[in-house]
From TrEMBL:
CDD domains: 7tmA_OR14-like (cd15227). The keyword Transmembrane applies. Belongs to the G-protein coupled receptor 1 family. The keyword Ribosomal protein does not apply. One of its GO terms (cellular component) is plasma membrane. The gene is LOC102838520. This is Olfactory receptor. Odorant receptor. It is found in: Cell membrane.
Amino acid sequence: MIIVNLTALSGFLLMGFSDIRELQILHGLLFLAVYLLTLAGNLIIIIITTVDEHLQAPMYYFLKQLSLLNLSFITVTVPQSIDNSLMDDGYISQGQCILQVFFFKSLAWSEMAILTVMSYDRYAAICFPLHYEVIMNPRTCQRAVIAIWLNGNISGILFTTTKFSITFCKPKIIHQFFCDIPQLLKLSCSDDYLRVIGVTTFLPVLGFIGFISIVLSYIQFFSTVLRIPSTEGRSKAFSTCLPHLFVVAFYVFTGMFAFLKPTSDSPTAFDLMISIFYTVTPPTLNPVIYSLRNEGMKEAFRKLLLGGQFTRKKKFCALVDTSFLLPVSKILNNIEFIQ
């Protein structure tokens, strides 16, 4: 009788992390703390990169877009999980699940795309410093961001339409804290599930191609850096860019592992932890990684915290002109990298 009722549900039942009430409350409170911390960190980056004239270069423009994506990405899954845990109710309607899948896929693809563009921005700044302002001009930056958001929405529509065109005939129990796509696929019994599997596989492969593009950009980047005689310049470049490459690799491989591995009928704690790694961890850590050791970001944050006055906003995408007249070794010593 329980199975029949679950099958007849118009929505789905999210099992979350535990059936024990005390652990559910603990999970809800921990997620609430992480969510508020993530909101604060990303909102601060959005504010200071908007109002501070010293943070108007392309890299900060893309960082602001990344923070907006991070803020939206974690909002798709975590608030619903907090509500389910604290209210002891794992039910989510089909409409909510459809929206969650759409925004999750759209934002995940957009985040991968913005990370790729950010790596290309660094590649252009270091490998083509004399032509950087031409390559990354304001119109190019804005068009890149528009393309990122449009491609994300198209991917989300394609995936969501394909996913919910199949029939769910098994008990609508999802062993996750959100509408996890592999878990939803496991509930299908229609004959066209192979089409959905194709789309499910295709999008992570596109993400991996984006990661390969990032790696190739960094290979060119590091080959240029290694030719610099200044030890200080090389050290600064490596210490600031390696964390970015690590975060990208972590995000891509955990996401691909979760989507491409066979779904189990008895999900383990390991499966839940993997989902946290690619849904919660990147939006939480990105504000720290990209701004912790950046002097410009820290100075702007101190102004915001102490109520200091921000100077008038500069023209977008403007960099210090004299930096492009220096040799590459001096450029690396003076350029302000993002963490």
